[in-house]
């Protein structure tokens, strides 16, 4: 900020710009007077003169003027350039410049221009390496931030010095710079342990209509402020190896810089997205001091310093990213200047008028200055005395000149005595008046002293009340900080809940839309399935009707065959052997009748499947029993397996499972379950069953029945001969397929009737 020797930095250039611009328009010292509430007042010429005389009478060293010699310690940093000035400067105003210098150390504000008995930063040590206990030592007191009536933040009780030149302002800065806290670390020999703020205040007020005096109206006074901030750099303790106080200082520095970054991020988010989040200015004294700057009451400019070393790459990258983010924040707002309503250019017009008037008086021979007026007054006073006669003596015997001179001198002496008596009387009267005035002044002084004592008591009470209010303010500020943090937490929770609510509502909307799509899909599937099952039911009903018709037809045929067998005519009645012969020679009856010799050999038939041109998987479990029926299922181009496998299914298009079970009448019923083979998305094979064929084997029952009703007139032997073995008389084989369009095929093999022995 100060620059290097031979090349002035930011601070000298700013001071040059200010004083070169307002140099001829500066007001006399103490015309502007700052108050304790971040305001400025204008004093009259008499009060300003008394203030200057009081300052000159004080024994303290004065701030240097521009004509004095500059301190060689910083003389090479100041290079005054007259061409560096602002163009638009109001010539009808007078200006005053005030400077102050503060630092923010461990989140506390200290005044660097405050006068202390000795250096308060470095403790004094004696030979025993113990601190010196000195009653005159007063440790520096931290200052308090306040807010004025215009909602601008300022430091109460801060020393503000009025300066008239660049050299004087820089010397004040250098005096405070010596008190700034610095320390030695592993990365920097003189590392700043605090943030410093050099404040330049520019007060301006318009001149009156004559262009001679300053207007006393406070509304017309404008107070501008320029703050030059030197921020301490962020530190990483793993590199600086800080311990103890250095570690605490580094933590406070990093915390304040992080708060500054957070404030700028919140401002950027509010401006870009139109939100109204609370900016956490109060989390740090640095951001709290410049709250009004970020709120739009001024302009903010940032100069970033980076280190070109390779080991500082991460820090430099973070600083550049922070600088890039700050460019997106806009805080500038135009300020309205008060309008005084006076004629512009009145200063130079009145000055030109006075110069012209003086020139004309000189031309007429009038008084030029105040000395000529004093000489004219003395000459007028001497004209009241009688004129002296000529004192030239030309003759020794001249007796008239000396008596005339003596007479004139006596008259003058008498006149002087008269004047002396009058003056004595006047002095006596004046002394009497002065005594009366002194008595009045003494009485008034006593009265004023009484009033002052009362006022002192009131002031003491007010100070106590002020201290109480300050403590209360601190307590309230602490509570406000807690409430702000609580509000921040609640806002964060509210934001999280709102986000969760939005996500839940979006999820519910997606679920509702999915539900509607699923309902529409299910309705379509239900309609499709309903139509499919209606067709399937119609098909099954038709197949069942056809099956029942076939069964009825088969039963009718059976009944016809049985009727034909039963009603067959009897040719001869065999003789019945006698009982004696039966006893002597018992007959041996075979368990089952022998087949008829005339019955031709039956050739087994193979029933051909309808799916001839396709490749099949014929799945026959090992528990199947061969039926040895006339018609057997035969599938060409089939792969016969005992257990279904994915390899066999991958080679074929159709699948057939042979399943056997025992029917209710004790016969074996064979079912051929058929289906289509297709590939799944996972790369496997699946079977969808489409058809079931049933092969059922039926045979007449083996029980005995009578072929005709018994005749009671016949003998017992005749009655026994009427009984026939139905099994030996009829053998029926029926094979059919459910739902087949073809009629059931059957064969009837009859054996000759045998009589009972």
From TrEMBL:
Keyword Coiled coil assigned: yes
Protein name: Kinesin-like protein
Keywords assigned by UniProt, alphabetized: ATP-binding, Cell cycle, Cell division, Coiled coil, Cytoplasm, Cytoskeleton, Isopeptide bond, Microtubule, Mitosis, Motor protein, Nucleotide-binding, Nucleus, Phosphoprotein, Ubl conjugation
Organism, scientific name: Strigops habroptila (Kakapo)
InterPro entries for this protein: Kif23_Arf-bd, Kif23_Arf-bd_sf, Kinesin-like_fam, Kinesin_motor_CS, Kinesin_motor_dom, Kinesin_motor_dom_sf, P-loop_NTPase
Record bears the keyword rRNA processing: no
Gene encoding the protein: KIF23
Lineage: Eukaryota, Metazoa, Chordata, Craniata, Vertebrata
Coiled-coil zones: 452-521
PROSITE patterns with a match to the protein in the record: KINESIN_MOTOR_1 (PS00411), KINESIN_MOTOR_2 (PS50067)
């Amino acid at each position: 900020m100060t620059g290097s020797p031979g090349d002035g930095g930011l601070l000298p250039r700013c001071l040059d710009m200010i004083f070169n611009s307002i140099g001829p328009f500066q007001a006399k010292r103490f015309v502007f007077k700052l108050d304790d509430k971040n305001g400025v007042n204008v004093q009259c010429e008499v009060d300003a003169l008394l203030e200057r005389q009081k300052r000159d009478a004080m024994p303290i060293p004065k701030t240097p003027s521009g004509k004095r010699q500059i301190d060689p310690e910083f003389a090479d940093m100041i290079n005054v350039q007259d061409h560096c000035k602002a163009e638009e400067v109001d010539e009808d105003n007078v200006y005053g410049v005030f400077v102050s210098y503060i630092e923010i150390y461990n989140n506390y504000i200290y005044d660097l221009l405050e006068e202390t008995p000795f250096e308060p930063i470095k403790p004094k040590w004696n030979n025993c390496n113990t601190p010196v206990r000195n009653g005159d030592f007063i440790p520096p007191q931290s200052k308090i931030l306040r807010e004025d009536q215009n909602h601008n933040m300022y430091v109460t009780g801060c020393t503000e010095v009025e300066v008239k030149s660049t050299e004087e302002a820089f010397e004040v800065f250098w005096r405070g710079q010596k008190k700034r806290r610095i320390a030695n670390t592993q990365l920097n020999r003189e590392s700043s342990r605090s943030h410093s703020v050099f404040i330049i205040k520019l007060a301006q007020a318009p001149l009156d209509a004559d262009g001679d005096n300053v207007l006393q109206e406070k509304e017309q006074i404008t107070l501008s402020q320029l703050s030059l901030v030197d921020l301490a750099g962020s530190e990483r303790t793993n590199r600086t190896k800080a311990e103890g106080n250095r570690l605490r200082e580094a933590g406070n520095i990093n915390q304040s810089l992080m708060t500054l970054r957070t404030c700028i991020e919140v401002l950027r988010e509010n401006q870009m997205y139109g939100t109204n989040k609370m900016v956490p200015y109060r989390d740090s004294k640095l951001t709290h001091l410049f709250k009004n700057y970020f709120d739009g009451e001024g302009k903010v400019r940032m100069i970033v310093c980076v280190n070109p070393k390779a080991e500082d790459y991460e820090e430099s990258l973070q600083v550049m990213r922070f600088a890039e983010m700050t460019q997106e924040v806009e805080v500038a707002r135009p300020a309205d200047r008060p309008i005084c309503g006076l004629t512009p250019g009145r200063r130079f017009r009145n000055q030109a008028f006075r110069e012209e008037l003086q020139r004309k008086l000189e031309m007429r021979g009038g008084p030029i200055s105040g000395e000529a007026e004093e000489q004219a007054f003395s000459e007028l006073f001497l004209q009241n005395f009688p004129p002296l006669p000529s004192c030239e003596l030309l003759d020794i015997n001249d007796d008239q000149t000396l008596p005339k001179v003596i007479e004139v001198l006596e008259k003058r002496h008498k006149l002087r005595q008269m004047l002396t008596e009058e003056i004595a009387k006047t002095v006596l009267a004046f002394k009497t008046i002065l005594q009366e005035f002194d008595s009045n002044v003494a009485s008034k002084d006593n009265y004023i002293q009484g009033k002052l004592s009362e006022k002192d008591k009131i002031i003491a009470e007010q100070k106590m009340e002020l201290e109480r209010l300050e403590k209360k303010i601190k307590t309230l500020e602490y509570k406000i900080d807690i409430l702000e943090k609580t509000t921040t937490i609640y806002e964060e929770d509210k934001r999280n809940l709102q986000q969760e609510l939005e996500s839940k509502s979006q999820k519910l909307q997606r679920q509702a839309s999915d539900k509607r799509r699923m309902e529409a899909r299910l309705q379509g599937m239900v309609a499709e399935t309903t139509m499919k099952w209606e067709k399937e039911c119609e098909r099954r009903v038709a197949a069942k009707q056809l099956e029942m018709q076939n069964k009825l037809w088969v039963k009718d045929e059976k009944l016809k065959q049985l009727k034909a067998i039963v009603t067959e005519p009897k040719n001869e009645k065999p003789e019945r052997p006698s009982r004696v012969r039966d006893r002597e020679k018992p007959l041996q009856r075979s368990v089952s009748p022998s087949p008829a010799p005339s019955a031709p050999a039956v050739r087994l038939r193979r029933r051909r499947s309808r799916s001839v041109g396709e490749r099949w998987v014929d799945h026959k479990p090992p528990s199947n029993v061969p039926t040895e029926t006339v018609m057997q299922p035969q599938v060409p181009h089939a792969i016969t397996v005992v257990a279904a496998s994915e390899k066999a299914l991958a080679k074929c298009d159709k699948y057939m499972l042979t399943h056997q079970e025992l029917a209710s009448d004790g016969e074996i019923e064979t079912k051929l379950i058929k289906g289509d083979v297709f590939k799944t998305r996972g790369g496997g094979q699946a079977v969808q069953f489409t058809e079931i064929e049933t092969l059922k084997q039926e045979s007449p029952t083996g029980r005995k029945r009578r072929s005709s009703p018994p005749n009671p007139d016949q003998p017992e032997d005749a009655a026994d001969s009427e009984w026939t073995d139905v099994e030996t008389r009829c053998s029926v084989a029926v094979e059919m397929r459910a739902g087949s369009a073809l009629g059931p095929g059957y064969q009837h093999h009859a054996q000759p009737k045998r009589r009972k022995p």
